[in-house]
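ARCHIVE CARD
SHELF: 3
SLOT: left
DATA:
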Amino acid sequence: MSSDLQWLLLRNNNSFIVKRVVEGPVFSKEPGNLRNLHSYKFSGLANSKSIDISETPAGIQVSARKTKASSGAVKAAIAKSTIRPRSGPRRAQGVVAQYAKRGYRPDLRTAALARVSALIAAQKEPKPSPPKKLRGSKAKEIEAALE
């Protein structure tokens, strides 16, 4: 079945559609949808080539659907590469760019890099906030009480 026909069948009815506002944007929770927008370009179900970026305990996993795999193959039809935690944004950029350099959906390079960067930023521990300094009359009262 062609990807255009799959999109025509999936675009109005599937379990991944998220409609929050009546006249607002339509989102999608499907695997392989990098921007989470309900459109043919970003659809992971309708396109024969799709890139899925997800967070796993081992790190960030980038998986791509193999184009020449048979339709019945499930596990063997996906190529996976893992970006270890704390490996840095340059490593993530290299892993994502290698798919675009090979001609595998180069239009998704920016979306994939944005998704990987967001997951790396979410894994970082936030810096502790410094204690607030009292200013004005309250600071003078406390300082006078300490003396």
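SLOT: right
DATA:
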Amino acid sequence: MHDLVEMNMIRWSPPPSNWVKINFDSSVRSKAVAGGFNLKIEAGKPLVATAFNSGVASVPLVETFALRNSLVCAKEKGLSKIEVESDFKLVIDIANGVCDPPWRLLKIFQDFKSLRCNFVSISFKHVLREANFVANALVNIDIGLRIVTSRRSVFLQKHLLSLPSPM
């Protein structure tokens, strides 16, 4: 007799009603690092999706900037209940006070502490990469476009960079 094994799918889950979920990530390709984040409302509907190129910065630095930038965006939109997820455990642990930030991230986390006071409720959760897929895909698309444009003519660069940003 075969035992049935229940399999749990690893996937993104929507935030509770009246909350917004932020997922952030970074990606490295050909020595270039990009970061980004997305904000989604309860039904999974995108509110904001953005990515940025940070050149040759370290992954922890870019992940921290992505977190900080996502909170600035949430504050500017007047959001009050935030659920934050990332697959980068170090940044989530620092945000939850589990450990202190390395000195290179200290200034950004000082900004982060003042930003987090702007929300009625905010939580930080480490998730597996599969549950952070949209943020990961977003930064990989952004970094892919930048690498392609850096290897092509000025003509291609001008036209590819004029594409509308993913929102």
